[in-house]
Amino acid sequence: MTKNPSPLFLLCALLCGTTAGAAETAPIQTAAQDPAASGSVTEEVPIEMPVIEVIGTPERKKNLPGSAQVIDRETLELSHVMTTSEALRKAAGVNVRDEEGFGLRPNIGVRGLNPTRSTKVLLLEDGIPLAYAPYGDNASYYHPPVDRFDRIELLKGAAQNLYGPQTVGGVLNYITPAPPADFAGGFRLTGGNREYLNGHGYVGGNNLLFDFVRKEGDGARDNIHSDLNDVNFKAVTALGARQALTFRANYYSEDSQITYSGLTDAEYANFGARYNPFDNDEFKADREGASVTHELALGEGGALTTNVYVARFNRDWWRQASTTTDSQCGTGFRDARIAGSEVDPDSCASIQGRLREYYTYGVEPRLRLAHGVLGGGEFETGVRVHYETQDRIQRNGTSPDVHQGTVVEDNERTAQAYAAFAQNRFQLGRFAVIPGLRVERVEYERTNNGNGSTLDADLTEVIPSLGATFSASETLTLFAGIHRGFAPPRTEDILGQTSGSLSGTVTSVDVEAEESWNSELGLRARPALGLAFDATVFRNDFSRQIAVGSIAGGSVPLATGETLYQGVELQGRADLGRMIDSMHNPFVELAYTWLPTADQETALERVDTGAAVTGSAAGKRLPYAPEHLLTASLGYSHPVGFDTRVEAVMIDDQYSDFANRADPDGSGLVGKIDRSVVWNAAVNYTLFIGGPRLFVTAKNLFDKTYIADRTRGIMPGAPRLVQAGVEYQFN
């Protein structure tokens, strides 16, 4: 097997390339990554950072043939969101399921798609793939802290065909702050109950930016505590009059005491939601990443933007139970948990380490050009070459707290992907037609290092899209679109193994890519100053949806079937102060999703045997697809520096398995999850103009106890969290 280049070598190459360019830094502004940019250059103006935005400016958003929301910096700062999960609930169509209470491994679902490990949504940061293996293992065991984001973009519909590989749900693009031209910086210090501490500091100047986040605190249950550090560096430099270069480097580390298993029904009833006996479990992770973005202005409305990126992610998760029915510690231990008896993990002479290391790197040039064909418009095209490898080892130890043991799994899995895409907007007066095409080619390989068994597989998919917009007025835009949804199978899905042991033989699995036809119709309206809302009707029709065991209770094997999702999204904000031209500004925000249809159109069938998964049948609702989602905020702001807001988050009833079983079976894995309503509040006060801001926040204000998840047993939502702090910005 051909070995991939050392990521350290690639990181050094990126560093050296950027350092060489930095010597030519000059106060020159290049064309931004914005279709309205002129491409001209202006002397003595700070450099703008080249960045790929999936939504971008309000004018660009107006032209998108799909629904689009932006969670801006002001909302993130004044709400004092603790986690990315909390932030994303402010966008219509998004269901985020809590896990450990710290948001470190978010479960993000869009338009009814199962949120487990965020596998049905494309995650980007500054337009660059964020997941450590977006083709071969698209699961979120790493997610950067929300503190370092400037804003969050969410794009759905036909417009997402410019991005990939996943085009079934939506694109989440996290935008980080641009380095300042002049000296500036700031800090935020936050403390609260459950040992919560958060320090965030940043300083920059001369088109450089350093950012550091330190977080620690207890999770939603006993014996869960996390410590993380996140360090970022960003630099922008001009290369002559029409070019700019941005370099980013990041280091993330996490040390968490955290288990994988949830609670049984009896444990939840007898000991409460915070109970967790597994005090020996541990999760450690670190990630290094770097990227270079080069932009060349190409006249009016044109730019060539090239991203080169590389990352390494390593995580070791040592645990004594993966689910409530796990017999790793013996059947007696397991049965005691199901019966609701207290157990002692120190009496279990076993611990298992799932040790993973991922390497990812790639290059993606994008060309955007304005043109005059058929009334004018814009053409965007690009290609991507992407490579990723996973080294997966499992060690089984014979004592509860020694992190070593016998190797029982040693796998190497690779995915090499090639993508090409193009989209054109034909502007015909107020009407625009936007056809697009994406082609994905993925080559997989899996090797069992225990016996040398190896096999490869490949797939090629053509993904068309067609969108349209109509500008009825300056304040009203109608949009519609249809596109082919695509999500590649994981390496382990398309290449199986006869057993998980070192003697297992790698085998080919008859599973194809996930496919759907996704359509939507909507409007974006700004009927009055201070009033804005978006409304969208959507339909996602899957001819083949891939379902794996972790998405429902028990050990459901890999299965596929036909499914259908249909619903409505509403997003809006009203600012009374802007409407009546007053400094006193009461405001209301709304993000609502109605999902009346999230159905299995056929029984899901096992890939290995062709038999229907137990309990699955046409007409039954899909798991973790609540019919109603609502986040509503009511607040008041005043320019002298006072802002307060109260937020209600409602997540409707949902099933935890394909059979739609309402009653629990004792394991904690099965049963209907009841509706929850959680209230949050925040108060901000700036001492004087340009001075420090003081704040107090409360998450789960009324300390509601509720079940958030049953995939590995009952996972409760976080208890009441009260936090206070100070932040200050200087320039």
| Strand element count | 36
Question: Can you tell me the residue ranges where pLDDT is under 50 for at least 5 consecutive residues?
Answer: 1-47, 550-554
Total number of domains: 1
- CATH homologous superfamily designation: TonB-dependent receptor, beta-barrel domain
Indicate the multimeric state.
single chain
- Mean pLDDT across all residues, rounded? 91
Largest sheet: 22 strands, antiparallel, barrel
Helical content stands at: under 10%
**Alpha-beta content class:** mainly beta
The rough form would be described as globular
CATH topology: Maltoporin, Chain A
* Rg value: 25 Å
Query: Can you tell me the CATH class?
Result: Mainly Beta
| Head-to-tail CA distance between termini | 53 Å
Helices, by number, come to: 8
Describe it for me?
With 731 residues, this protein is mostly beta strands. The chain has a single domain (7-231, 240-730), classed as TonB-dependent receptor, beta-barrel domain (Maltoporin, Chain A, Beta Barrel). 8% of the residues lie in helices and 50% in strands. The chain contains eight helices and 36 strands. It has a 22-stranded antiparallel β-barrel. It has a five-stranded mixed sheet with strand order 3-8-9-6-7. A hairpin with a 6-residue loop joins β12 (208-218) and β13 (225-238). The longest helix has 16 residues, at 7-22. The chain starts with 6 loop residues before the first helix and ends with a strand. 50% of the residues are buried. Mean pLDDT is 91; it is low at 1-47 and 550-554.
